Structures are given as structure tokens and as C-alpha cells.
Input
Amino acid sequence: MKRMMLVLAVLVLFAGSAFAQGTTKLEGTIKLGGIWTLADITGKQGSAAAQLAVDEINAAGGVLGKKLELIVVDDEGKADKAAAAVEKLATVDKVDVFVGGMASGAELGKIPAFKKYGKVVMSTGAAGSATVEKALGPSPESDFYFHLHPWDYNQGASYAEGWDAIQKKYPQIQIKKIFLAYEEGAFGKSSWDATKVLFGSDKRYTIDGASFKSALLGGGDYTAVLEAAKAFKPDLFIWAGYDADALPMLEQAKAMKFSPGIYLGAPPGWPIGFGSSKLARNVMLYGMWSPAINDINPVSAKFYKNYIAKYREEPATYFAPLAYSAVYIVAEGIKAAGTTETGPLVKALEQTKYVSPLGEVITFKPSNIIKHQGITRQKILQWQNGIQEVIWPFETATAEPVYPFPAWK
Amino acid sequence: MNRTLVRILLILIAVAAVALPAFAGDYPLQVARNIMLYMALAISWDMLLRSGQISFGIAGLFGIGAYAAILGVVRAGMPTWLSIPFAAVFAALVAFLIGFVILRLRAMYFSIVTLALGEIFRIIVHNLHDFTGGPEGVVMQQGVMFGGNASKLYWLVLAGLLVAIAASYWFEKSRIHFALTAIRNNEISAKSSGVDIFRWLLLAFVVTSAIQGMLGGIFVMSYGFAAPDVVFSADFTLLPLAMALLGGVYSTRGPIFGAILLGLVAEWLKLKIPYGHLVVYGIMIIIVILFMPQGLKNLLKPAAKRAEGRSA
Output
């Protein structure tokens, strides 16, 4: 028992030192607290891109005569860990602004702590409006929160708009029947709900769908959902899942000789090297950014070049330029406000007009509940010769669509 | 003398635990809340294990309690403080009903069924979309309990932990201990000695389920939302299990030490190795289970006995 008490005492001392010190802090810096799920590619590359932005801004002289400092904590995609990350960054590191975020479940864990500290949050993820936007609440209680990523209903509306525009411009593309294969979690279910409302409500499209268990969560057998889709004979087949589903689902579609007019994937990120697979040919996707935008957008080209130079890998997810944009927007806001105090900073950020690497100028407007919503449109892209080409919006298009999706040989 | 010293130390630890908010910031309090929650789950898992039944249903009952609490508040207008005992009673009732069927099973059959039950609960919640919010979950519009006050939320979780510890000591110090140990050692001998096996197993299953449901209620009241992927997460089964195994099973002390050690190490690794801590943490758990299957408690026991022998 005495030994046990000794062990306990050592643990308490160990805990004290660990939680009191936190990370090494630089004096006289403006601190950004970054919270991402670092085991996931969106978090790994998002945090790396945010650090790249910090380095660029510091190399250009910093903000208000001070250097920026990014302190990153992993939320492990869990609500309780995410809450602890906010507490650590707010009380130990004493950050001035928060950036980051991806999964809605983890974001929900952060919201009570965010509200407690009231510091500006530049959120790069969490699309679940039914929970996250509701938990944030209306203005003014959520005015500290700037949501860069589109909400699920923004995404759905932009897809409906995009397909209407594509069918108008390319009469050979005609869509009457849409099938959505969606992963059974919150992400997939919210995609299904939005698809039914946005495409099915005016009866212009016939909608059907079925859920599957994502390979990321222990699934990986898509036979049932692909059989249902094949029997439905859709003009547009969409799957809403994760990067781990991309290749196995295509393999199984090939084995079943399922080749709809349009085969489209909507994961938050694609597996690295997906474009080099023969299976990827002419697969369409929803997203916000692709390296093809470099040809028409110098900010994107600069981001891409510097990211590869620093990390020796290609950004494989739009969360990288999104996090990069988040840091630049915050930096410009602090410059304009002349302070990191929440009130003036919120006012300054409301005037944001940031020319982003995502191919659009980011401003903040009210969404259904909160006051500060950034991007509201996603893009429709297509894998062509190993590159994600932008098909719509036409003002940022980099290629014409290849239609139909080729039959399997 | 030794016993007196231990008692004084225990009292000091208890006082320090209650008074922690007076001298610790919100971050250590949040970490302590996370550790205490898993500690209480680990203790509850161990309590049933003392009968020889290995349950993998912690996350299922935790999730049931979480949803009972939040739906009680959101749909029935229940006060938040009442939702936590309601979660415990609801989980106990569910355990009582299913216990009649599954407590006829033994060994891996019982384990597999408890694992499946958790998945069944999750699927039910997924599909009752209008009532439970489906996969997206449900949010408490009025916000979290105590307005998010870190000290009060800490004491809430501490109270939940004390309930688990008290129940565990009740199991250890009362005749329940003899009944469960007899069942674990040899059911036939226990039965021939007059132990009503089913009754004691049902009691253990219902009490541990009530604790797990209560903790689910505390969790959702602390964060203001419930989503199936969050509250039915396998973490709520696997981490308590690893904590109990690390500390040493069949006691209250083992899961307590295991939870403190694993909880602190996990947080420390996260800060020191942000991009690779989960790999190190996983390897550490594997090594501990491979080389210390009896847990820290039993590893230290012979050393403590030797020391006592020398001093005598």
C-alpha cells in the first residue's frame, strides 16, 4: 500500500509538471491556438498549412510588429479531448485566437469552452448545422465564431446550383435519377437529408439512396449499396464517405460492372496518390480546391509551391488551403483591428475580403443561425489524367467535363 | 501505525481531490474530469468482472444513459440535475430486463452479446431520427450544466466517481464479495453452497449498468450534446478495460491507479508528441498487457510484502 501511495505521489508530481508547463512559449508573440485531429490527413495537412501561413507572415514582418506563434493540440476527434485542448490553449498557453477544427463531434465538445473564453474562433470544419450551428446559437452569443467551411445545407444548395448550370451548358449531360450511397454516421446522414430536400423536393429528380459502413469505421463491403444503386440505374451516382472508401468502392463497382453516367465521390479528403490509380479516371468529386487552380489563381500557386517546398508532399485535401486561409484572415483582421481583443477583432474580421487560394474572395455573411459564415459554395471537380480539374463554378473552371463515366473493361 | 498512515494519506487525497478547483486551473480540471470519468467506468467494469463475467457493453450502457439524460431534458423538459439519476435508473432498468436473458450466458458468449448490445443500442438511436436526432445527434439548446463552470463540472464528475468507488467498496466489503468470488471460482461449488447465482449476477449487472448510465448522463450534461458516434464510441469500452488491466483487476484500487497512470500519460504524450502520440500510447498499452498481465497492483504487492517482512 505504501508503494502504491508512493507511485501516486510520483504521478501527481508528474501531472503537475506536465500541466503547468505546457509548451515552450515565446515572449511578445501573437498566439494562435490550433486544434485539429492530427491522426487524420485533414488535420495533419491543415495544421501544416497553418504553420506555413504563420512562417510566411513572420517572414514578411509579422503582425503589429510581433511574430505569430501557432501552438497545435490534437483533439483526437473526441469531444472530451477537444474540450481539454481548448482549456490548455486558453489557460496555459494563453492564446489570442483559435483556429482549426474538422469533425462536428469534436467541435461540439469545444463549444462550451469557446463560449466561456469568448476569444475569436476561425473554424475550418464542422459542417453539421443540426448540431454545431444550433449549439453555437444566434448572434450576439456566437459572434466570436467565424465559420469558414460551408454548412451542410450550403454544400447541398451549391451542388444543386452546380448541376443545374452544368446541364444547361452541356446539354449532353442529362440527370433525372440520382442515387446517394452514404456512410451511416452523421456526415453521411446529413448528406442524405440535404440531397433529399435539395434534389427531391421539386420532383425534377428521382432520388434514392442507401447507407454503408465506412472502411474508416470498420466497414468496407459496399456490395449491397452498389447492387441497390445498379438496380436503380442512376444518371448521377454519389457516395458520401471517407478517403478510405474511395478505392475499395471503385474496385467493387468495377467487379460488378457498375458504371453510371456520372460517378462522384464526396469525401472530406482523398487518399494520397488516388489520382495515379487507373480507377480514378473521370471520377467526379465535390471539393473546394485542387492544384489545377494554380493555373488561374496566383495565391493558390504560391501556397502550393511553398507547401511542397516545406513539407515535400502534395496537399491532398482542401483543408490545407482552408487552414492556410484561416491564418491569413486572422492576421489581416488583427492588423486592421490593431489588437487581438475580441470586440474590435470581430468588427475588423467582419470587413474581411481575403483573396484565397481556394479561388474565391472570402467574406463573412450571416447563415441560418450564426452571423459569420465564410464560404458557402463548394466546387464540382473531375479527376482527369491524374489531376483534379474544376468543372464548376465556371469562373474558376480549369477543364471541360468528360462525360459519361467510361464503362469498365 | 502503517494503517493509520494509510488512512491519513487517504483522507489527504480525498481533501485534495475535493479542493482541487481552489488551486488548479481549468485545464487540469478538465483533464481530471476526463480521467475520473474513465476511472469510474473502469471501476464499474471491474465490479462485474469480479463475478467472472467479462462485459464489452460499457459503451452501450454509457450511451443509453447519455441519451436518456439528454432526451429527458430536451424532449420532456426534465431539470438537468434530475436527468443524471434518471439516466442511472433508465440504464439499470434496461440492464434488468436484458439481464434476464443474457445472464444465462457465460464466458465469451456473454462478452460477445454485451458487445452486440452496444451496437444494437447505437443502431436504434441512429434510426429513431425524429426522437433522437439520428446520426447527427441532439443538442441542449439551454447549454451545458452549471453554465460550463469548470469547478462545478469537476465536482459533478467527482461525485459520479465517488458513487462508483462507494459501490465498489460495498461489493468488496459486503457478502456480495463472497458471492461473486465464489461464482467466479466455481459456479457448481457456489451453487451447492447456497449461492443464488442468477440473483447475484443480476444485482452486479444492474448496479454496474446504473453507474455506467449515470456517467453517460454526466458526460452529456457536461458537453450539452449527444451523438451516437460520440457516446457509443468504443473508447468508452476499451480505455476503461485497459485502465483496469493496467492497474490490476478484482479491486477498487487497481482501476484507480490504472486510470491515473494511463490518463496522465495519454495527455502528457499528446503535448510532447502531437503527431505520433497515439502510436506510442498504443504500443505502451500492448507492452503493459504483455508483460504485466496482473497489473501494477499485483506487481507492487510482492515488493510491498518483502518490505513489510524486512521491517518486521
About this structure: The CA atoms of residues 127 and 151 of chain A lie 4 Å apart. Chain A touches chain B through 53 residues (CB under 8 Å).
